[in-house]
Amino acid sequence: MGQYKFTTVEEMPPLAFSLESTRKIPTGSWRHVRPIYKEKSSPCEIGCPAGENIPQYFDLVRNGKYEEAWHKILEDNPLPGVTGRVCYHPCEGQCNRGPYDEEIAIHNIERFVADKNFRNRNLPRSGEFHKSEKIAVIGSGPAGLSCAYQLARKGYRVVIYESEHEPGGMLRYGIPHYRLPKNILNKEIGDIKSQGVDISVDSKIGGNVAWTELEKYDAVFVAVGATSSRKMEVDGEDLQGVYSGVEFLYELNNGRKPKVGNRVVVIGGGNTAIDAARSVLRLGKKVTVLYRRTRSEMPAVPEEIEEAEKEGVKFEFLVAPEELTGNRGKVSKIELIRMKLGEPDESGRRKPVPLRNSNFTLPVDTVISAIGEAPDLSFLPYSFLKKGVRIFVDENYSTGVPGIFAGGDSATNPNGTVVNAIRAGKEAAISIDEFLGWRAKSDGAPREIVKPEEINTFYFPHEKRVKIPRMKVDSSVSTFKEVNKTISDAQALEEVERCFSCGTCLHCDVCMTFCPDVAISKDEAGEYVIDYDHCKGCGICVNECPREAMELVEEETQWV
Amino acid sequence: MGMNDTNDLRKKNGLMHPSVDKVLVIEGTHAASHAVRLAKVQVIAAYPITPQTGVVEKLSEIVSHRELNAKFIKVESEHSAMACCIGASISGARAFTATSSQGLALMHELLHWAAGSRLPIVMVNVNRAMAPPWSIYVDHNDSLSQRDTGWIQFYAESNQEVLDTVLQAYKIAETVSLPIMINLDAFVLSHTSEPVAIPKQEVVDEFLPERKALFKVDPAEPHAFGALIGPEAYMEMRYKLFQAMEDAREVIRRVDSEYSEKFGRSYGGLVEEYCMEDAEIVLMTSATAVSTARIAVDELRSLGFPVGLMKVRAFRPFPVDEIRELAQRVHKIGVMDRNISFGATGMIYQETKAVLYNASVRPKLFGFIAGLGGRDITPETIKDIYSYLLNHDAPESETIWVGLKSGQEVRPEGGNASSAAFGQNENV
To answer: Is A19 on the interface with B (CB under 8 A)?
Structure first.
């Protein structure tokens, strides 16, 4: 552009403006802090024991990419249809939206994604079996399935030994149909098999399959779960009409109808107790749950307790069984003692203490005891190190016996939930891979977690959490059909729109729009590029970012 | 009032003209909003402040009902509102904002920027007294304090004039490339409903075609606007702005007469005269006080007093020629200011005096201060002033405070018309 020279006022333009772009003036040198794109962890993904990348699969849902969203979940969890239904969703307890209005219904989105892909068999298979080592997994519950699936994806041939006639462990035999329909479980087990996992059913290690059979494998993962009910340790426990919760649910899930009378009590406060009680209702009988502490100490998922109450399950708190008495071999009375709450025990909950002379009896004809489960480890041939009733494992899930790993409810520190078993399987697979010399375990430095006050809530008007479609109580208790429904496409979209997407960039263009120096643009791949020749480090982009996916860092001072 | 009288009044007020689409009984704020709709403004950015709020409320309704295809930008301050309008206007869009009092004061820096950038932004300012003490009522200190920013300023007498002036303003602004502020009195107009003729869109479109920007931001051909320039050219840029304001006088007159042809209503350009035939004593004032003065003038005329009235419609550019011409015809000019410049006098008085110093004929000039902070200006107030003018050969002081509640005589520094003119009119 040529040189302009104005000699008179008449020649001048009305406004002073530069003759060409001022881009050649590198105002970036004014900067002492620099904005960068830096993604962080959302509290939900940290809260998810399976480590699902929730913001990323939410973004795929937001864009209608349901298959890709499913694939994203499958990286961490091969059973989203299961966990979308039965998980106690600790992710939601961590959600930053909770303190703002209501936490995101993450488990409903997970279930939605799984159900959208119910007929989809197109899994992302990483490759053929490029690793020569073979691995055995004992038990096809969530821990075993998760471990086998992850190992197959890493290129190993895996065989699962399952003592029952069908795979799934507690998912199949412990959880009632109305919470987890079998077709969902079957579909996802099918998905896992499609990755090349062999499941050998009716194969009980230490029974029809000798432990020595396992010697041909390079590694073994023991995930037999906790299937034996703990005893109440009271007189009369062997009377007719007394079931364990596990046994009762096992019968039901095998398509049989265990005999229950008209005066049914369930003892315990965990998920097994609630599952048993709600199942009794569905057999057309009334039921009372007896629990030795109060509602707030119940280990069952709070929603399940609420549902049970809505459906008509009665609760009696602060009572414990003292004795069962029978009539001609059949249970007819239960003697109970009143409790009060004392000092906190090692679980942090206040310990129940019996109140003297508070005994009373109730007439009963059916007692279901569900006070906890323990693993059956009688098949283990030589002395594994144990902690209490469980197999001792270190933080790498190693039992101490080279090549033998264990996880889930049969190993130390279980919390008795599906998702923690899935986590154990996934993490054990990484340990096994490492044990076989394949890769280092580290995923890099842990990322920062986005705090609620770091969200720019200006961008998020208050919105109600999605309302979960549910079968009416009247009809739900007359059938074992699934109670809760899958949310609709529209509901799913609304719910993912509510998500702050903490720490994950959604390419919302807020940074680009607000940059006063037009120093942010998008490259061909749609990623943001900051022109540091012109960014003055004002920080507006970082401040405006709705979801804390950017950060300001100090420039290093260079003395020339 | 009989049917024929009603129709006469309607005709007189331009409500029966063929350009009229409908007549709505609306507040002054809404008259402004309707004008913005008809002007097909493309960007609106405003921050709410009493008593301007109605302008923006109505506009937000109009935009959300898609009666106007405009970008409505919510902002965090008046400073940002004006910044948005500047950005929009420099991109070639027709932009609008509205404010009042403290909000206008907060915009001050950007008022210079808008005018210096020669952007035809139109703003409605609802005149409200400056705090402290807090007041939400009318006087004109807020807008008159902005007189040197390079904005054209109009003061409206009625809700109809608000609507008509906004439409005229876009045409004037886009012709001379200067921003325009249309002022209306708080509550007296802003919150008072009057019948307002809403013109037909197609007539407005003929009158006010799409904006053609002199220059605009174009990413394909980048320039930095409002760049730094040295002493060798700054003065010339100021001269161009000065000249644009000079040119505006003729444009304002021409646009008003064009408007009159299309819509049947005229406001005289920079000033409007009333009962000036053979008038010897004339009162100059502006805004709604003019309506009140018309009543007082009618009454005094019927009693045979040779009084007349001049409405100052445009304060910038100041009606220099009109006032000098007026000076040739009358003996005394009173100026009633609804404002006060501390350390000087009322501002219209001050400017009038300045205009007359080099004039060939210089009648006696009287400066009155009235109606500050929403104090009512009634026909009695105006008659007090005319009486003072009739009874005094020269003012007793530079500022004469009308209706001041004082136990003492406010002289000689400040004369008091009520006590001086009519013994029967006690201070209110």
So the answer is: yes
Nearest to A12 by CA among B214, B265, B365: B214
CA-nearest residue to A516 within chain B is: B87
Does the predicted TM-score (pTM) go above 0.90? Answer: no
- Average pLDDT on B286-292 reads 98
Distance from CA of A488 to the nearest CA of B (A): 30
Task: Name the residue with tokens 């989809």.
Answer: A120
CA nearest A5 in B: which residue?
B233
Q: What is the pLDDT of residues A434-463, one digit of tens each?
A: 999 887 656 667 889 999 999 999 999 999
Same domain assignment for residues B249 and B279: no
* Chain A residue with minimum CA distance to B117: A15
ipTM above 0.85, yes or no: no
- A266 and A334 both lie in a single domain: yes
- The CA distance from A552 to the nearest CA of chain B, in Å, is 24
Q: What is the CATH number of the domain that holds A318?
A: 3.50.50.60
CATH number of residue B150's parent domain: 3.40.50.970
Examine the pLDDT at A326 and tell me if it is beyond 50.
yes
Q: Which residues of B touch A24 (CB under 8 A)?
A: none
pLDDT bin (cut points 50, 70, 90) of residue A17 is: confident
Query: Domain for residue A541, yes or no?
Result: no
Give the separation between CA A460 and CA A462, rounded to whole angstroms: 6
Q: What CA–CA distance (Å, rounded) separates B147 from B95?
A: 21
How far CA A162 is from CA of A47, A136, A351, A409, A503, in Å, comes to 31, 11, 38, 16, 41
Answer whether residue A521 is part of any domain.
no
A6, B118: Cβ pair inside 8 Å?
no
User: End of a domain among B215, B240, B263?
Assistant: B263
Residues of chain A found within 8 Å of residue B240, distances taken between Cβ atoms: 9, 12, 14
Interface residue A513 vs chain B (CB under 8 A):
no
Pairing of the two strands A219-222 and A366-369? unpaired
- Subunit contact B223:A20, Cβ cutoff 8 A: yes
Q: Determine the structural domain holding residue A356 and report its residue range.
A: 228-372
Residue B122: give the domain boundaries: 3-263
For residue B227, give the amino acid letter.
A
